[in-house]
Amino acid sequence: MQELETVKSNDTTDVYSEVLKMFVGTDNFRPNIKQPFFSEDYVIATDAMVLICFKKELLKNVDFTPAENPPNALSIIPEDNIEPIVFETTALREAIKSLKEKTGKTYNIEESECPDCHGINFVTYKFKDSFGNQHLYDLECPVCEDGEGFFKIKNIETGETIESFRELLRFNETYFEVDKFESIVKAAELLSINQIVLTSRKYELSKHKFTLGECTVCIAPVRPLKEDIIENINPESE
Ligand SMILES: [Zn+2]
User: Fold this and answer.
1) Ligand 1 centroid from CA 149, angstroms
2) How many whole angstroms from 27 Cα to the centroid of ligand 1?
3) Among 8, 62, 101, 234, which residue has the fewest nearby CB atoms (within 10 Å)?
4) What is the mean pLDDT of residues 197-206?
5) What value does the CA radius of gyration of the chain take, rounded to a whole number of Å?
C-alpha cells in the first residue's frame, strides 16, 4: 500500500495572506482591485476606502492571482506628518462593541418585504412612445439592491422611519465607517498587535495613515449625517 504523503508544511496558517484578503474590493465594476497586487517590494490590497500595504516577503505563499492594471497605490500613501498617536487594539474593539450596542438601542431594524418589488427583486418600467405604443421592461429593483433584504429602520425613541444610517467611529472631528475601520482592528488582532498608531493626517477628511506592526493602513474618513450612530475612539492616555 502506498503511504500517503502528509502536507504538514501547510498547517501553519499564512496570517498575512488572511489579512490581505480582508482589504480587497468587492465591486465588480472595479476588477483591478478585487485581488491584492504587488508594487516594488510591497504587497497591497484596497477597496478604495481602506488600503493595507506591507513587505511582500511577509507572505508565506502567494495564493492569489495579482490584480491586473492596479492603481499606483504606493503614490497615494502619505508621509508621516504628525507626532504618533497611539490607540490600544482592545480599546478600539471595545468602542466598536459599544457602537453596535448604541445602534441596538437607537434603531429597531426589521427585515421586511421590499415595498416596491415585493421581494421578487424585479420591477416593471413602463414607457409610452409618441405613437401610443406601450413598452414594458423588467429590471432589477433599485430599492432593494442585489436581492438583499429590505430593512425597515425605525428610531425607537421618536418612532420615525428612516431609509438608512451608518455606524461611525469618531476621532476629534474625523469620522470613519465602522466596517472599514474594523478591518484594521481585525488585522491587528489576527497579527497579535496591541497598538495601532496614527502617523499621518492633514485635516478632518484627508486620508489617515496608521501603522500596525509591519503593516501600513490608509483609511478615508467620511462626513457624518444626521441619522448616523457615532462612538468616540480615544488614544491611549499618557
Ligand atoms: Zn425591491
Assistant:
1) 8
2) 20
3) 8
4) 96
5) 22
